[in-house]
Amino acid sequence: MATFRPLKGMRDFLPRYAERIRYVEQVSRELAQLYGYEEVITPVMERYKLLAAKSGEEIRERMYAFEDMGGRKVALRPEFTASIARLVATKMKYAPKPLKLFCVGSLYRYDEPQYGRFREFWQSDYELIGSSRPEADAEILAITNDLMKRLGFRSYYIKIGHMGILRGILSEESIEEEQQNRIMQLLDKKRWEEALSVVHQLGAPQKCITTLKTILKTRGNDAPRVLKEAKESVQSYESSITAVENLREILQLTKGGGIDFETLIEAGFARGLEYYTGMIFESYVPDMDIALGGGGRYDKLIELFGGEPTPAVGVAPGIDRLALAMKKQRVPVKIRRERRVMIIPVDEELQAKVFELSNMLRRAGVSTEVEVMGRTVSKALSDANRRAFAYAIIMGREELKEGKVVLRNMEKREQRVVEIKTLLEEILGSTS
To answer: pLDDT, tens digit, for every residue of 291-315?
Structure first.
């Protein structure tokens, strides 16, 4: 008989790890509510043309794309932003701004599986749409910081840059957007020399090459110093100066607002997605060399999809990567575990009464299971102990005639006969 395994890059999550994934999702959703972000649900599959429009060459090559039975070229979503932009450009075209949208779900890229990188993965997504002001960028950074704190990470940092710095230099040297995208892809992969070689081949003057070399080395934790050096390096490029000043405003807002996190400022930071126009960032923990989430400003994407010119900024935290980082840092999953109850009948003829009692307990909010394996009382109790039940209720004929059952405290290994009418009080009273 054939043994079936998950496809390469796909995973089964067993209960404990699934619980960790859902915990990160739950914290992400609670944070969305705190900041006023409304949840939307978009399709897992979209038209290929939509997803490919500004996704970047690497993602275009790694999309799960195919022709459906209607002859349309479609793809599984590799990220959320394109779907959100489509939604805003169409069904939410006339919705009052700002729009604050949240979504969560699975995404798909045909990557080579490795540590923290899979072909099916999970993200949450926060999008603030309609504001071009630095306050919007600062809020997205605040959400990113808040999520890391609420999940309990001991140490983390956010790497921040601005696409306008590099694009400003290249644009003022008349390098076309398509070639700029190619250069950004190389920089995103840290292939700096190759990127500089492309700029040289495109005929850029030595001043441009020298400026880019300097910018690519301009990084550090001291934001004021790094931004000062970056501004001095791009003095010949007006739009790049504007980008540096915009980044300074955003960081001043976060610091002035008490949004405290460790930063790594990289003036030459680039992300592979082609739709970014302003601030970009990624979150990291020191233990792992992969981004746990990332985002930035994209002011032209909604217009590209047929909407009005609409500024926007967002972030997509990686749910499974955050769960992996929590496991690595041994961050506890702070789930409030309900005290569970197992009901065990002494003989099978009492099953109807067992189900009646289990329904009563569940209606009262008590997590209740019924012994369904036909085991003896001793074996059922052993199983309840192994699975960490708080209580076992043993239902026998003689006790039932008097409206009573045996309530066993599994932790204390103590049991006594109690009346069914006081059973809820006995269980709930001890969990308060």
So the answer is: 999 999 999 999 999 999 999 999 9
Q: Comparing C-alpha atoms, which of 298, 304, 257 is closest to residue 281?
A: 298
Cα–Cα distances in angstroms (integers) from residue 129 to residues 88, 162, 199, 402, in the given order: 9, 18, 33, 65
Instruction: Give me the phi and psi of 47, to 5 degrees please.
Output: -65, 140
Tokens of 319: 């749910």
Percent of the chain whose predicted confidence (pLDDT) is above 70: 99
**Stated pTM of the model:** 0.90
Judge contact between 107 and 78, C-beta under 8 A: yes
Tokens 């009563």: give the residue: 360
Cα–Cα dist 341/354, whole Å: 12
Record the tokens describing residue 6, joined without a space: 């998950």
Place of tokens 């060459």: 57
Helix (H, G, I), strand (E, B) or coil at 199: helix
Residue 306, Cβ density class (10 Å: 0-12 exposed, 13-18 middle, ≥19 buried): exposed
Could you tell me the two tokens for 254? Answer: 């976060």
Tell me if the bond preceding 15 is cis, omega within 30° of 0. no
Which listed CATH number (3.40.30.10, 3.40.50.800, 3.30.1300.10, 3.30.1130.10) goes with 341-431?
3.40.50.800
